[in-house]
User: Fold this.
Amino acid sequence: MLALALLALAEIPVLAHDVQRGDILSAADFVLEERAGPLPPLARPDQILGQEALRRLPAGTLVRANDVAEPRLVKRGEPVTLVIASGNLRITAAGRALGDGRSGDSVRVVASATTRTLDGTVIAVGTVTLATP
Assistant:
C-alpha cells in the first residue's frame, strides 16, 4: 500500500541576501519563496521591519522574532548629545557613549568638556538625557 502525504505550499518571506549583525531590516531585504510542509512559527512583519539583526542571518533564512531587536540608538565609542532639561530650560553638551543603548536604556557617557562619567537614558539617535540634580 502506498501512503501519500500532501503538503500545502505557502509563499513566505525569506531573506534575499545575507544580513550582518547590526543591520536594520527593511522590506527590500526579503523575497517571497514557496515552501512546503509545516512551517515554524514566524514573526509578523511589524516585529521584523525596522529592527536590528542580533546575529548574522544567511540568505533564505526565515526570520524569527528572537533574531531581531529594537535598533541601537547609541553605540559605544560614538559621539552623543547630552541633554539636561528642567522646565523651559534645556542645556546640551557633547559627549561620548561608553556603551550601546536602545530607546529607554540606561547608558554611561563621558562629557567631552569635563571628561566626567555620567549616567543617562537614551531618548533618540545619538541623544542621551541626564537626570536633573
User: Anything to note?
Assistant: The domain at 10-69 is CATH 3.90.1210.10 (Type Iii Antifreeze Protein Isoform Hplc 12). The chain has one helix and nine strands.
